[in-house]
């Protein structure tokens, strides 16, 4: 459903095929014909930053009775995972990612909730395979 990629920018550019590639069965002795070539389009996916800045004193971090640093790091990691999952499923795109489900189906094609003004699928929304 999704891929994790490392980026050093404020957006992620991807090439997507907007049409299907052609293919056909062939035999060893029959001649083959040229198949369809997919059309590609470059899309830009805006990226958002998720951050946490908890406050802890040096005295608390140095306490040998309890490893507060690892405990805090674990809590932040858990919160990040839950926040990313929530945005993936229901994010509204306001200072966070737009959810993969923010799409509706019209005329047999998936369209984002923001119309692209054309009759083709918006590649920032869920891709449907039939």
Structure description:
- This protein is α+β, with helices and mostly antiparallel strands and 130 residues long.
- It is built from two helices and four strands; from the N terminus they run ββααββ.
- The chain has helices spanning 58-62, 68-90, and strands spanning 11-17, 40-46, 103-106, 109-112.
- The strands form two sheets. It has a two-stranded antiparallel sheet. Strands 3-4 form a two-stranded antiparallel ribbon.
- A hairpin with a 2-residue loop joins strand 3 (103-106) and strand 4 (109-112).
- The longest helix has 23 residues, at 68-90.
- It is elongated, with a radius of gyration of 23 Å.
- The chain starts with 10 loop residues before the first strand and ends in an 18-residue tail after the last strand.
DSSP strand (E) fraction?
Answer: 15-25%
Number of helices: 2
Arrangement of strands in the largest sheet = 1-2
Number of strands: 4
Terminus-to-terminus distance? 15 Å
Mean pLDDT: 78
Give unreliable regions as ranges. Answer: 103-121
How much helical structure, as a percent, in the residues? 10-25%
Whole-angstrom Rg: 23 Å
Taken from the alpha-carbon principal axes, the silhouette is elongated
The profile of the biggest β sheet is: 2 strands, antiparallel
Return the string of H and E elements. EEHHEE
The helix-and-strand class reads alpha+beta
């Amino acid at each position: 459903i999704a891929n994790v990629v490392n980026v050093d920018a404020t957006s992620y550019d991807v090439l997507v095929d907007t049409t299907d590639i052609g293919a056909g069965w062939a035999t060893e002795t029959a001649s083959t014909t040229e198949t369809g070539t997919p059309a590609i389009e470059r899309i830009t996916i805006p990226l958002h930053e998720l951050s946490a800045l908890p406050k802890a004193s040096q005295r608390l971090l140095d306490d040998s009775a309890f490893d507060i640093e690892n405990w805090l790091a674990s809590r932040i990691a858990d919160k990040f995972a839950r926040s990313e999952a929530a945005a993936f499923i229901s994010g509204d795109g306001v200072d966070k990612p737009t959810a993969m489900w923010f799409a509706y189906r019209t005329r047999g094609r998936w369209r984002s909730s923001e119309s692209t003004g054309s009759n083709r699928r918006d590649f920032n929304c869920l891709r449907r395979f039939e």
